[in-house]
Amino acid sequence: MAAAAEGPPEAVEDPAIETAEEAKEPAEADINELCKDMFSKMATYLTGELTATSEDYKLLENMNKLTSLKYLEMKDIAINISRNLKDLNQKYADLQPYLEQIDLIEEQVAALEQAAYKLDAYSKKLEAKYKKLEKR
């Protein structure tokens, strides 16, 4: 190995290494055929890439159309909900006087109930006094 390192690299004769003089250029016909093959394969590759990109855009377009339809459906649902909410609010407003009357009646019933309890307690006291006087 020391002998190979001492001399210039061109001086080493290895049968596996070709020198510039020994390298042969391919024939003109081979170069043309290789170029045609390369361009054909490159065209096939680029066609595939463009087709894939085109398909991606078609998929995005279909997804956008479906999304648009879903949003239209959601808009219709929201409009219906809004309309129903307005109807409910109007019905509640129409019922409000009756609800206030019910609250008033409830208060009056509670007051009447208290009066009935007081009357009951008073009548029991009277009965007790009457029984006491009757025993005398």
UniProtKB/TrEMBL annotation:
Acidic residues composition-biased segments: 11-20
Any one Gene Ontology BP term: extrinsic apoptotic signaling pathway via death domain receptors
Region (Disordered): 1-27
Classification via Pfam families: BLOC1_2
The family this protein is said to belong to: Belongs to the BLOC1S2 family.
GO MF entries: gamma-tubulin binding
Gene: BLOC1S2
Record's compositionally biased regions (Low complexity): 1-10
Entry-linked InterPro entries: BLOC1_su2
GO cellular component: axon cytoplasm; BLOC-1 complex; BORC complex; cytosol; gamma-tubulin complex; mitochondrion
UniProt protein name: Biosis of lysosomal organelles complex 1 subunit 2
